[in-house]
Amino acid sequence: MRERWDQVWRGSRYLLIGLPTALATMLVLPLLMVGAISTALGVGLMLFPRIMAGLRLWGEWHRRRAAAVLGVSVAPRHATLPKGVRAQWRQLLDDGENRRDVRWVLWHIATGLPAGLAALCCVGLTVGAVVAASLWWLFPADEPLSLLVGIPVTSWGSALPMGALQLALGVALTWWAVPRLARWDARACLAALEPSAEDQLAERVGVLTESRAGVLDAHGAELRRIERDLHDGTQARLVAIAMRLGVAREALPDDSGALAKLLQEAHEGTEEAMTELRDVIRTMYPPILADRGLEGALASLTAGSAIPAELDLGELGRLPAAVEAAAYFIVAETLTNAAKHSGATRVTVRMSRRGGRLLIEVTDDGLGGADESRGTGLVGIRRRVAALDGTVLVASPVGGPTAVTVELPCAS
Fold first, then answer.
1. Nearest by Cα to 394 from 407, 283, 356, 301
2. Counting Cβ atoms within 10 Å, is residue 187 exposed (0-12), middle (13-18) or buried (19+)?
3. What is the CATH number of domain 291-409?
4. Which of 331, 336, 238 is nearest to 281 (CA)?
């Protein structure tokens, strides 16, 4: 019972406050129109983003009230404006919340007004019964007070029972209708301000993309750290061990027999381990990337290509470490494929950045007919690119030429 009365009280307060705010929200539409029109005159360039920020605060206050009525929690939405008119307009056009704020204006007017008026009638019927029944005697005799359906009240004998009956009717209507109206209006408010399923999916994809970019950056940094540790630590120790074993072999007399053979095997095994370690380091994160950057690493690849290679680099800017490593391995693998399988006499490597995408194009003048099923390395390229959510397009008609086009997301 007490919980129900709490719902009635909260619902009444919510709807009776929502009634004047819905009337006030009707002024938002002409204000938005004035702001949009003034944009053409230049004044709105600074005014309109601030109007939308104010609307965000206004809608957010109603959103928190609606969530409190429904007993749910909602994540806060921020209404801060970045510095600079261009940044403010970019945020205004890109932020889907602004469209939902304008949609909420229409919904709040359409639901807040009727729900608030209905709550006002229910509460007014209840409060009016008490006030009117006790003050019936203030009305003139020729125009007596009327209760319920126009029944005139001319004495305490009619005022008390009619007032009690109207009070009971008002309490019943308020008890039954007000909480339902409040929940209906609150759900409408949240539905208008909450993103749709498509918007939620798009926002989730955006969050996952950002988190993946952070993971890739961290992964690249960790690979660089491991490469440095292996190169400067483990590899250096293996080199020292190999040198000592070599000195020990030279110091042994010629008739050492089994001991000389063991030292020889240990020496050769250490050198093989160093070779394998160098291969592992190169496949993890090429040291040349850390030393010379992507441009220098690609220049070294093309200079050392088995067939003449031309390198054409655009403005790349700062790239995530994982994207740099993938681009390096893609170019290295395609150059190797061209040298082994294409019969080409020349290869062209082009790399450029278009917004948030890195475009890699490797073209050779070979015989074409590249077949991924024959182990040409294209499968490995596709897997590496797929891990970064990129795309690979291979055009290799019989007779040539062969063009491998790769796009990698590189927004940091």
1. 407
2. middle
3. 3.30.565.10
4. 238
